[in-house]
Specification:
heterodimer; A: mainly alpha; MetI-like fold; 2 domains; B: MetI-like fold; 0% strand; globular
Amino acid sequence: MKNVLPVAIIVAAIVALWYVACLPMNAQLQRDLFANTDNTTYSFSDFVTAEWNMDRPKLPAPHQIVAELDHTIFGLAPSSKRSLVYHAGITLQETILGFAIGSALGILLAVLVVHLRGLDRSLMPWIVASQTIPIIALAPMIVVILNQFDITGVLPKAAIAAYLSFFPVTVGMVKGLRSPDPLQLDLMRTYSATRAQTFFKLRAPASAPFFFASMKVAVAAALVGAVVAEVTKSEDGGLGARLLAGSYYGQTVQIWAALFVAAACSAALVAIIGLADRITARRMGYAR
Amino acid sequence: MRSRALANLAAPTLFGVGVLLLWEAVVRGFNVPRVILPAPSAIIARLATSAPTLVADFLQTIQGVLAGYFIGCAAGLIVAILIDRTPFLQRGLLPLGNLVSALPIVGIAPIMVMWFGFDWQSKAAVVVVMTFFPMLVNAVAGLASAGSMERDLMKTYGATYGQTLTKLRLQAALPFIFNALKINSTLAMIGAIVAEFFGTPVVGMGFRINTEVGRMNIDMVWATIVVAAVTGSLFYGVVALIERQVTFWHASYRQRPA
C-alpha cells in the first residue's frame, strides 16, 4: 500500500502532461476552425479552452473522455447499441469463453507433454516456435473459416481468444508440472505411487504458482485476441468494432473511450486472477 | 553429443513433416474446398507465383517493425536507467508499467494511424508503445539484480555511479534485457501487422491478409502467414543467437556436466 502515493502523483503528472500535450496536437486544427468562422479576435485562453473541447480533436482532453465514458456507460441503457456496457459485454463474453477453452486446452497439452516423452521431444519445439509467430495475423482467416461452417456470433472470436491464450498456459504449465524437486519425485517412487497419484498429490499442487502466473498472461492475451477479432468482423459489435467505427468516422473521443473500457476490463480480469492466486497461496502456504 | 543433437533436431522435424503430410492427405482425401483450407502444396505454389507481391509486403511491414522495435527498446532501457536512480519514480511508475503491459495496447493502432498517417510511421509508433513497457519492466528488474556483494566490491574500488552501471549492473541486467528483446521481437511483428488492419497504403502483410480474406484467396493468406512466421522466427532466432554470444556466462548456457 505504500506505493499508493507515488502512483497517484505519477498518474496526476500524466494527466497534467496530457492536457499540455493537447495544445500542440490540436493547435493546427483549432486555428483552421477559427479561421473558417472568421474569428480573429480570440484571446489565448479562448483558444486553449476551445482546444480542450473540440468536437473531433487529434488528442481529446481527459475530461472529454471521462464525459464520453460517463455518457456511454451510465447515460444509455445497457441494451443500446451505442452503450459501451453493451459492447464490453460482448467482448467479455468472447474473452471469457475463449480463455476457458484456451486454458483447458493448454493444461491438457501440458499434461500430455509432461507425461509422454516422445511428445515432449517432437511437440515442444513447435509450441515454443509458435510463440515467435505473429499468431494474431491468423485472426481474420479463422473468422472466415468458421463462418463457412455456419459458426457465427461469439464463437469464432472466442476461438481466436482461445488460440492466443493457450500458448502461455501450455508453456507455463509444462514448467510448473516439472517444478517438483527430483528428490520429491524419488520419494513418490519409493512410496510406489502411481503416475496419477504423483500427478495429483505432487505435480499439480507444485504447479499452482505457475498456473496463476500463466492464467494472468492468458486472460490478457485472450482479451487482445477478442478485440482484434472484432476488428476483422465488426458487424457483431464489441469494443474492437467500436475502435474500428471510431477510426472510420474520425471520432477520436469514441476510440479513446473504447480503449479505456478495454483496459479496465483487462485490468479487472487480471486482478480477479491475482486475487484467486493470493487466496490459494495463503491456503496452500506458498505465500511470501 | 553430436548424435544427441541430431536426435533433438530429428524428432521435431519428423513431427512437422508428418503434420504437413497429414494436412495434405486430409485436404486431398476429403476434397476440402480451397476457400476453407488450402493444401500445403497449393500454399507453396502460391509462395512461388506471388513472390514479388509478398516481398513488397514484407519490405513495407518490416520498416515499421524494425524502426519501432529499436526506438521502443532503446526508450524503455533509457527510462529504466533513469527510473533506477530515483526510487520515487520506481515506486510510482513500475506498478503502472506492470498494469500497462497487461493492456490491449494494439487498440491504439487506429489512433496512431490518425496521428502519423497510413504509411509505416504509424505502425512503428504502435510498435514503440508495445515494446516500451516490457523493456522497462524487465530492465528495471535486471538493474536491481546485481548482488549486494558485487555492489559493495565496486564501492570499495571507489567506482563512480557510471562505472558501477556500465561495468556491473548493466552486465548483470543483460539476461533480463535479452528476455525483453525476445518478447518484443514477437510483439513488434504482431503490432505492425494488426496496425495494418486499420489502414495502410495498399501494401503490407496485414493489409494483404485482410484484403485476401475478403476475396476468399485463402492460399494467399496462408502464404503471407508463412512469410510472417518465418520472419518472426528468424527475428527471434537472431536475438537469441546474439544473447548466447553476449551472455555466455549465464547459468542457462553453461555446459551441463554429463
